[in-house]
Amino acid sequence: MPFEKEIKLKIKNTGEIIKRIEEKGAKLIRKRHFEDNFLLDFPDNSLYRRGTALRIRVTEEKNFLTFKGKKRKSSSFKIRDEWETEIKDVKALFMILKNIGLEIKFRYQKFRTIYRKNKLKITIDETPIGNFLELEGEEKEIKDFVNDLGFSEKSFIKMDYVEIFKQSHSGDMVFSE
Q1: Any idea which of 20-24, 74-78, 79-83, 130-134 has the lowest mean pLDDT?
Q2: C-alpha separations of 151 from 22, 104, 154 in Å
Q3: pLDDT in tens, 141-156
Q4: Each residue of 70-113: pLDDT tens digit?
Q5: Domain 3-166, what fold?
Q6: What's the confidence (pLDDT) of residue 99?
Q7: CA separation for the pair 64, 114 (Å, rounded)
């Protein structure tokens, strides 16, 4: 069963953090691109109430359907089961899910740049609510890389973008047109 271990860090200057990431030996694996994300649930929010999530991610190159299981207990990391598959026909999938009773509950957008160092996935996310560095991998690898960048574990964010956004906003987390 695949699972993700990750943290986020709030960052100010994306250019500066990119420079530091590259100095630490991370390699660019996907240049800056736009992602449009849709969280789906039943009208009674049963997936959310169970602590799970169903997401469709749309990009220019590929689209993905992701199911995220309940978060596991961890003092420093967001850890949860995750299954993901590529979608060939996004419109058809939206219609299928709509016809079984699912509806879009939240939409969020971001520009994402992806790096990798060994097994560590490093992303820079530019969102309507600020810029974030997201690190996904093994706990030791995350901690070591974060320390190398000059951050402390006190700055770890375990929340997802929905939770961060809903702390001080309502509606969807989208860029103004």
Answers
A1: 74-78
A2: 16, 36, 8
A3: 999 999 999 998 899 9
A4: 988 887 888 899 999 999 999 999 999 999 999 999 999 999 99
A5: Hypothetical Protein Pfu-838710-001 (2.40.320)
A6: 98
A7: 16
